[in-house]
Structure formats: structure tokens, C-alpha cells
Design goal:
It contains 15 helices and 13 strands. Helix 7 crosses helix 9. 49% of the residues lie in helices and 18% in strands. It is an alpha+beta fold and 445 residues long. It folds into 3 domains: 99 residues, Sandwich (Immunoglobulin-like), CATH 2.60.40; 118 residues, no CATH class; 104 residues, Glutaredoxin (3-Layer(aba) Sandwich). The longest helix has 27 residues. The strands form 3 sheets. A 5-stranded mixed β-sheet has the order 11-10-9-12-13, with helices on both faces. Strand 12 and strand 13 form a beta hairpin.
Length: 445
Amino acid sequence: MSLFEHKQLIMRTLKFLIFVTFCTGCHLSAQEIQLQAPALSGKDAKLYYFTGAKVDSLVSVVDGSGKAILSIPGKDYRGMATLVVPGSGGIELVAAEPVVSVQSSASQLNTETVSFPSSKENSFLKHIFTSQSRYMQQQSWLQAGSQLFDAGSPFLTQLQPELDKVNASMQALDKEISSSSLYAARYYRLADFMNRLFDTEQKRDSERAALIRREMEESLDIASLYRSGQLWSSVLNFYISLFNHTAGTDKQQQYVASVQRTLQRLPAPYYEAFLAGCITETERFGWREAQDGILAAVHPQFAPSIRSLQRAIGAYRAKNSKEMPAIVGLDNTNETYTRTLVAFYDSDCSSCVNEMFRLVVAYPQLKEKGIRVVSVAADTDKKKYEKGIKDFLWTDKLCDFRGFEGENFSNYNVVGSPSFYLLDKDNKLEGMYFAVSDVEEAIKN
């Protein structure tokens, strides 16, 4: 998926979350989402809840009376959740109350068919978005109407007081939101930040970008963002894109500096989740310099629990120590090679397939230079793997059919594919690349 397609998907999802979402929350040893929907009896009810980019899920069967209870473990979850009945729709909610009751008499779950009895969180969020939508429509109509009349028209004197009332109502709503301690208010402020971030990124406004950056580094509520669902990944994605569009030639260095400033104020578990999210975005954008800059500041004793971050840190440390592990399953009896190129790929990845085709074309040149090529696939389907390697010209083709959890992928801390590791005769790393053209450039001399 291209970056443009990825952003479009994010924005479509965000519009649903921001303008159609309702929220609730929890504070017990097990926080309960109680569904009462008689028309859905016998169906599965699934609840998804979030910590950073991680998604956990629960499932319960709607019993004969139409009731299902889903209990979030622990007592401190305070954020977004998604309740889905496969084939019958779903809704978004938040956990910030001991029990959230979701009631519906319809055969489809959506924001029009459900109610949340006794939920301050849901009631307030509905109040926010309903009021804001109404005020914005009124403001738009009045402003458009004022443009239809000449200055001094008696109609303008009638429109202006109404416009003042709407503006005053919007200011009162903003004050109400700012003074609220409910998660619904925090989520709204995060959604507002996302809207401003997106608008600034689209307009490539450097002055507004500086304000957005300062807000991220100094005051954005990362703790609430951590459990906001789709907003988490969306904010991180558009934040790096903001630098790509507004920061100039040193955009990667500026991004690194901003990420490091933000990390300095984050305790666990937000520090690790934010760090992992930013590393994921540097992978997506191909910002290797930024990735190395961020990882260089990670304390040597820091031991992440997020698998993708473990691999990124492991790859960075291995790259800098230059010591690479032996490839499992490789016959090393042939000592005629001067160097080895290890190509990690996945047959389900279109860019991998393209790069491996380029590697086939480049292979005669590599062989002439005494470079041994070893391909390691992340495939889990043997037929697909065997079909993919039939045109490979080299001898050493490996796959343990364990995907990215395979031994070689794990030992080399491979974060994304394709990845190419150029090793010298002593198995020390000469270079790590993500395109065959970069390998060809590296071996010119």
C-alpha cells in the first residue's frame, strides 16, 4: 500500500471515529461492558481495546435473553474500545466507568440504534459532537448569508447578533470541554489535535507546524492517546509526514530531535510504545538516518517488550558492532566466496518480489565479484515458496516456514522486508540495504 493510500485509509477511519463515535470507561478489577440486545441472541460479541498500537480482544456469546458481558482485565483501562457483533455491525466506546451498559433493540449495532444508560462518558461525548456539529452548521449558514447582502443592508444587522450567539455558544462548549476531567473530553481534544495536524500537513504550513511540534513535545496528552485506538497510529503517521512536508532538507534530523524531546517526558509504558511507533514510521518512510538517530539515544540497558522494537534495537546494535550471527541451515564448506549477500524477503510482499527479480538480474555481476547470494524467505506456504524460487539462479535458498518468527529472521532482527545484508568473509557486516540498486552501488569499487 502506498503512503497516499495509507493516509487515505487512516482519514476515512478517523472520520468515522471522530464524528460518529461514542465513549465509555472503567475502574474495577475487571471493567465490564454489558451488552443487552435481544435481537442478537446466539451471536458472538467481540470487544477490542487498545494500548498504543497493540490490540487485545475479548469474546462472549449473546445469551438467550440478549445479554453478553465482556470484562477488561485490570482496573485502570481508560480509553477507546470497539464492540462488534460480526454480521450485525459495531460501535466505538471508551472505558472510564466501572460498568458500561450498551442497549439496543435493533438487529444492527450502530450509533443510531444503541443507547448508553447512566454513562456520563458517552452522554458527554454525544453532547460534544452533536453540539459542535449544530453550531458549525449554524455558523456556516450565517456566514454564507452575510455574504449575500451589501454592507449597510438591514438584513446584516439581523444576522450579526445570531452569529454572535453561535460564536458564544461555541466558546462556552470549548470551556466546558477544557474544564472536564472525563476521558470523552480528552479524546475530543486529541481528535482536535489530529484534525489540526492533518490540516497543517496538507497545507504544508511551516509556522503552524512549529506550534504543532511544540505541543507534541511539551504537552500533548500521550497517556490518553495511548488508549485512543486508531488515533494513536494516525497521529504518529501524520506527525512524521509533517516533517516530510515542512522541515526542509534536514527533516530527518529535526524529526529525531523532536522525538527525543517528546520521549524525555514520557514514563513507562508510554515511552516504549511511543518509541516503537516512531520506529515503525521511520520504516514506513524509509528514513534510515532518522531511525538510527532515535535508536542511538536509547539507553544500553533498556529492554523493550514490544517485538518490533526488540528487533529494531537488535538490528541497530548488530549493525554498529558489525558482528552478525551465522545463517542457520547454510552449508559453509565452500570457502571460495569473498563476501556474502543475505536477502530476506516475503513472497506475499510486492516490493520484495520486485527486488528479488532485480536480484536475479544482478546475480551474474555478484557472482563475478565472488559474492555468495543467500535468500531467506518469510513464507509459510511451501507451494508459494517453491513457485517463488524457481527462477532464482543461486544455490542457497532457505525457508523454515515460520514467517518473520523464523530463526534467521529473529537472529538478524529483521524488521521489514526486503532487507539485504552484505557480509565480509569473516561474517562481519559491511552494509545493510533495502534495494538491490543500493547493493550494486555499494559493490562498484
